[in-house]
Amino acid sequence: MEQNEALQLAVTFLARSQRDDEPPLAIDAERVRESNGLLIVPYNSVQYLASRDVREQLLDCWPILVDLARGDVRFGTLDERYLWRNPSA
Q1: Which of 32, 27, 41 is nearest to 75 (CA)?
Q2: Has this prediction a pTM greater than 0.90?
Q3: pLDDT for 89 beyond 50
Q4: Beta strands in the chain (DSSP E)
Q5: To bridge 46 with a disulfide, which of 5, 24, 77, 85 should be the other Cys (CB 3.0-4.6 Å)?
Q6: Contact (Cβ atoms closer than 8 angstroms) between residue 57 and residue 42
Q7: What mean pLDDT do residues 60-83 have?
Q8: Could you give the CA distance from residue 46 to residue 67 in angstroms, rounded to a whole number?
Q9: Alpha-carbon distance 78 to 40, whole Å?
Q10: pLDDT digits (tens, 9 = 90+) for 38-69
């Protein structure tokens, strides 16, 4: 699967996962990267992404992971944190 197609899957996944009580969320396109066969797609509030003001940043936003071979899309887990904290692992 191409990165652009995988990114589109992540955008759709985030939109479907958005709860009514959350601020509007968007993909952090500057920080999307590929590692270990996964597209790692961080996201945050639209307000934070517009300003990059850390006071607006949402905490504990586990990135969306897209398996580039299978097209599976899901949120990352605590056990997988090394994937986005240390992308060369």
Answers
A1: 41
A2: no
A3: no
A4: 25-27, 33-35, 38-41, 43-45, 64-67, 73-75
A5: 24
A6: no
A7: 91
A8: 25
A9: 14
A10: 999 999 999 999 998 888 877 667 899 999 99
